[in-house]
Design goal:
The complex is a heterodimer. By secondary structure, chain A is an alpha+beta fold. Chain A has helices at 20-32, 92-114, 161-173, 176-182, and strands at residues 40-41, 44-49, 52-62, 65-77, 119-129, 148-157. In chain A, strand 2 (44-49) and strand 3 form a beta hairpin. In chain A, helix 2 packs across helix 3 and helix 2 (92-114) crosses helix 4. In chain B, 25% of the residues lie in helices and 20% in strands. In chain B, strand 5 and strand 6 form a beta hairpin. The chains are: A alpha+beta, B alpha/beta.
Chain lengths: 192, 409
């Protein structure tokens, strides 16, 4: 479809399953009470055995109060058999790829809804390069983390190619995980 | 204790445009100026600076560019002379060397305190310009042996030591300073966050000619989708001259382009990995503008190449000697701190609806996108001042002004 969807889909409202009004309402509420925007996200982690650990996520703080997911979610992490581990779950670095891909994809849906663009399918492959010399301590010039991250989207939507590219660019601009990965963050680790 | 209907704070082009409209409405007023007329154009601009807008856009109420080069770009010094001449021909009631230190509620409406006494006024118009550098706190963490200079204090390359320069920010100031320093023989690294790419010319016309023609500059502030964001957009990557200063042009000149300056740790400047996306955002935004121009003009112009995104480094050792100085082109802000009134948002910015502050009789003029996109440029002061003067006349209860007062906001 060449035309802008706003001019062609009046009869079938755009619905990507995102409540944009609620998001915009939250933004307006923040303008008057900026302190309610201060959130704390949390997870707990417990060592199981070997490189296997289990994390649990339930509560968080925000909107000036304690909040919780509707249930507690648990996530195992481990390393694959090739690392002489038991492969109980994905590796922590793969969780980072999961976080980036899901953050950008959720953002695309929200922005598409706000821009009145109907999505039909959105998928992406997230990949990252890493040189094991870093984490093995084998070469001080090699960092532990990724040297490069790529996200390749395939999107089918009622929009022009330029509009879809703008969705993906805007989603990066507003993504927490994209920011966390591209900019430094203070990290403090303590032991009691 | 002097009394007047209106105090205008600041005798730049915006304050004088306001004065001219107040005079046309026979509203008695005074323009209080901390220094000379067009003070910041005399004292806070670098020597090579020329206006971003072509001469024909240098219009003020009752004044059009009189010279023979309407497509040229005026130097800061020439523009300061022009504004001074304008103040004289308008016979504007300017008191120079009169710094306002406080505006507070008073018997008539406002008490305006200066070093030489207090004015009592029924209305106040803030026209103070953007004279404060928005330099990030992280600049304090620079190693002591690096020269650190806000763009507001930059005058010419010889202020800086020879050797590499890190220019932070890729708005008009940042790209112009980066170009000049690179040409001076100092290898420049330019840290690029969100920016607005703009070719100087498109389809044989100045880009601003097109923006004027297609109506972009007349879009009203209350029709803009996200006003807060639009008001804080970086300035167009333009220079007052017949050339481009976008990232492709700068890279061709030898400037090293890197991501947004994100912080300093262990003597390393940390540079964001978001460069590809900010370039993509800028290219997409430019394509949308050029599409609008083509839609208006018919046909299709020759498009600039997409921004070349280098495989940029993510850190830079500030102690290695590669960088000898840092220029902070991270924006300018107005200084409204002299207002002792409850008119600020939680970020400390003056609240206003198209220049009408939420305190009866208080107005502001000369801010980006104040009432229309044109407000960002000198050319916007004409219509902004007309609208706000009419509103102000209504506030003063002047006969015949009420209906015109409806035009603002």
């Amino acid at each position: 479809m060449e035309n802008h969807p706003m001019t062609t889909t009046i009869d079938t409202p755009v619905d990507n399953g995102v409540n944009v009004e609620a998001l915009l309402g939250a933004r307006n509420a923040l303008a008057e009470n900026p302190e309610i925007a201060q959130f704390e996200w949390r997870s707990t982690v417990t060592w199981m055995n070997g490189t296997h650990s289990r994390s649990e996520v339930e509560g968080f703080f925000g909107f000036s109060d304690e909040q919780a997911h509707h249930t507690s979610f648990t996530f195992d992490a481990d390393h694959p058999l090739q690392f002489a581990a038991e492969d109980n779950s994905i590796t922590p670095v793969e969780f980072v790829l999961v976080a980036l891909g899901s953050c950008l994809t959720g953002g695309i849906a929200a922005i598409a809804q706000q821009r009145q663009i109907q999505l039909r399918s959105v998928s992406a492959t997230v990949s990252a390069d890493m040189d094991l010399h870093g984490i093995l301590g084998a070469d001080p010039d090699v960092r532990n983390g990724f040297s490069n991250v790529r996200v390749a989207y395939e999107i089918d939507a009622d929009a022009t190619k330029a509009e879809i590219e703008a969705l993906v660019a805007q989603s990066q601009k507003r993504s927490a995980v994209f920011d966390i990965m591209t900019n430094p963050t203070d990290v403090t680790v303590t032991v009691s | 204790m002097p009394t007047t209907s209106v105090v205008v704070v600041g005798a730049g082009h915006a304050g004088l445009a306001m004065s001219r409209h107040l005079a046309d409405l026979s509203i008695d007023h005074v323009v209080l100026e901390r220094g000379e007329v067009a003070n910041s154009w005399r004292t806070q601009r670098w020597e090579s600076l020329r206006l971003l807008t072509p001469n024909w856009m240098t219009r003020l109420p009752g004044f059009a560019y009189p010279g023979d080069d309407p497509g040229g770009y005026q130097s800061a010094a020439d523009f300061a002379r022009l504004v001074t001449h304008y103040a004289e021909v308008c016979d504007a009631p300017v008191l120079t060397g009169t710094r306002v230190t406080r505006v507070a509620p008073g018997g008539l409406g406002f008490d305006v305190t200066t070093f030489s006494g207090t004015w009592h006024a029924r209305a106040v118009v803030m026209a103070v310009g953007a004279t404060r550098a928005a330099v990030p706190l992280v600049s304090r963490q620079l190693p002591d042996d690096l020269v650190s200079l806000p763009a507001l204090d930059y005058r010419h390359p010889d202020q800086l030591p020879s050797g590499g320069v890190l220019v932070v920010g890729a708005s008009a100031s940042g790209v112009q300073i980066a170009e000049e320093l690179q040409l001076s023989g100092r290898p420049v690294t330019l840290a690029v966050g969100e920016h607005v790419r703009a070719p100087r010319r498109y389809r044989d016309r100045d880009l601003l000619w097109w923006m004027d023609a297609i109506g972009v500059l007349d879009e009203r502030y209350d029709e803009v989708d996200d006003l807060v964001r639009a008001r804080h957009l970086p300035s167009l990557q333009l220079v007052g001259g017949p050339r481009d200063v976008d990232l492709n042009a700068l890279q061709a000149a030898g400037v090293q382009v890197v991501g947004r300056f994100a912080g300093i740790r262990h003597g390393q400047a940390q540079l964001s990995g978001s460069l590809a996306n900010v370039c993509s955002l800028a290219d997409l935004k430019l394509v949308r503008l050029l599409d609008r121009i083509d839609e208006y003009a018919g046909g299709r112009g020759e498009r600039p190449d997409p921004t070349h995104v280098p495989r940029a480094r993510l850190g830079m050792d500030l102690g290695s000697g590669e960088i000898r100085s840092v220029v902070w082109a991270t924006g300018f802000q107005p200084d409204h701190s002299l207002l002792d009134l409850p008119v600020f948002d939680p970020h400390g910015r003056l609240r206003h609806d198209g220049g009408v502050a939420p305190w009866p009789g208080l107005y502001v003029i000369g801010l980006p996108l104040l009432r229309r996109r044109r407000s960002t440029y000198i050319d916007g002061a004409r219509s902004d001042a007309a609208d706000l003067a009419a509103h102000l006349a209504g506030h003063l209860g002047l006969a015949g002004a009420a209906s015109r007062g409806d035009t603002a906001p």
